[in-house]
Amino acid sequence: MTALYVLDVPENTSVAKVAGEDETVTVNKIGPYFEITADGPIVVDRRATGCRHAVWYSCVAGVAGGHITQHDKNALRVEPA
């Protein structure tokens, strides 16, 4: 299972919301973080989140069970290890 952790602050809630729109992704809260998990890749489209670039590039708090393969102005993609 792949997990992406995003700090639960107002600026980042749209990242968790957009990620959760994928039916293969689960979004939970763990402490002060959103835990975004999936058996396969996790892909979040930046434009769909409405995040400005500064927020977008600082939203990742951690990754478990995978690695980031894309984090650019278009998308954030985490692939299983």
Describe the protein.
- With 81 residues, the protein is of the alpha+beta class.
- It contains 3 helices and 7 strands; from the N terminus they run E-H-E-E-E-H-H-E-E-E.
- 20% of the residues lie in helices and 48% in strands.
- The strands form 2 sheets. The chain has a 4-stranded antiparallel sheet with strand order 2-3-1-5, with helices on one face.
- It is globular.
- The protein starts with a strand and ends with a strand.
Assembly form of the protein: single chain
CATH homolog superfamily: Monooxygenase component MmoB/DmpM
Q: How far apart are the first and last residues' alpha carbons, in Å?
A: 9 Å
Q: What is the overall silhouette?
A: globular
CATH architecture: Alpha-Beta Complex
Alpha-beta classification: alpha+beta
Number of strands: 7
Could you estimate the helical fraction of the residues in percent? 10-25%
Strand content: over 45%
| CATH C-level class | Alpha Beta
